[in-house]
Amino acid sequence: MTSTGGVLFVPYQETLGLLGVEDALRVCEDVYAMHARGSIVWASPASFKLDVAEGFNNHWHVKAALLKEIPTTGVRLYNYYDDGTRNTIGELGCTRYIVLSDPHSGEPVAIVDEHWSYAIRSAAAATLACKWLAPRSPKVLGLVGVGTMGTNSLRCLCTMYNFAEIRCTSRRPETRAAFARKWSQALAIPVVPKETVEDVVRGADIVVGGTTSGEIVSREFWLKPGSTFISLARRELDPAGWSKMDKVVIDSWDFNMLQREFKRTVEAGMFSREKLYAEIHELVSGAKKGRERDDERILIHTTGLVSQDVALAHFLYRRALDKGLGLWLPRSLPPSPA
C-alpha cells in the first residue's frame, strides 16, 4: 500500500476528475458489505468534537476507522464555522481532509481533500439502498432542497432510473427556478420548480429530503402508497410519522444514536430499535429482504459512515497514484549518519 515517494496529497480539483458518481455508488456498497462481514474497526469514542462558540463559533469533528479488507486506516478531520446565521459546512473554505496510513506499519500514505468525496458519499450511501427499496420503474422524483445533497442525489438516481418528471423546491424561488432550468436542459426531461414541499412530495415515487433546516420539513401523510422517502439530514420527515411507514431502513443504529435529533426521537418514544426494519448492510448482504409489496411506503434515513469516507479517500489515493496525479510531500526520515 505504501510508496517510497513520500506522502501523496490529493487536492480538491483533482478529486473531481478521479471519482465518478458510479464509482462512489460502488465503493459505498462495497463498504456496506464489509460492515456485514464485520471487517471494520471503529474508533473509540466514535466521534471527537471540539465546539467553541463564544468568540470563535468554531467546530472540530474527528472520526476514524480501519478497513481490514483493503487494508487501510484513515482519520477524517473536519472543521467549520457556525454562528447560528452563517454556516460553512457545505463550503470549500472549511477544513475537510482524510489522512491515510498503512495499518501494518503506521506509516503515512496520503492526505486527501474530501470536499467532493464527502458530498457524493452523502448521496450515494443513501440512494444506493433504492436498489432494494424503491418502487418498480419510478417515474416521478421529488427533490426537497436543491443544494449539494439534492444535486448529488439527482446525479446518483439518474444512473439508476429513467424519470419522466422531476419536481424540486427550495427556500428561494430564484434558486429552484435556476436549478430547474439547468437540469431540464441537462437531462432533457421536465424539471418543475414547486412553491411548497407538499407540492413536491404528493404523488412522487421517490422523494429526497436534503435541506439544511433544523425544522420538520416533510409529513408522512403526504407520501403516496408505494413511495420511498430518502432522508439525508435531521428531521426531513416528521419523526412522528416514522412508525407509520411500512419499513424504516437506516445506515447504522449506533451512529444515528450519536445524532441529537435521532436520539431525541427515540427517547420521546416516537421510534425504537424494535420498529427498525433493517440497516442497509443487511440488504446488501441479503440478510433482509427489500421491498416486498408494491404499496409499501419506505423510509431510508442515513447519518453517514466514516468507513465509506475512508474507503473513498483510499480509492482517490490509488487512482491518483495510477494516473501520476497529486503532490508528493516529504516523509519524515531519520537524520543521515554523521
Radius of gyration: 21 Å
Query: In CATH terms, what is the architecture of the largest domain?
Result: 3-Layer(aba) Sandwich
Total of helices: 11
> What class would the helix/strand composition place it in?
alpha/beta
What count of structural domains? 2
Query: Whole-number average pLDDT?
Result: 95
User: Which fold name is given in CATH as the topology of the largest domain?
Assistant: Rossmann fold
Which series of helices and strands comes N to C?
EHHEEEEEEHHEHEHEHEEEHHEHEHE
Poorly predicted regions are none
Span of the ends, CA to CA: 32 Å
Shape: globular
Q: Please name the fourth-level CATH homologous superfamily of the largest domain.
A: NAD(P)-binding Rossmann-like Domain
Q: Characterize the main sheet.
A: 8 strands, mixed
Helix content: 25-40%
Strand percent estimate: 15-25%
Give the C-level CATH assignment of the largest domain. Answer: Alpha Beta
Q: What is the β-strand count?
A: 16
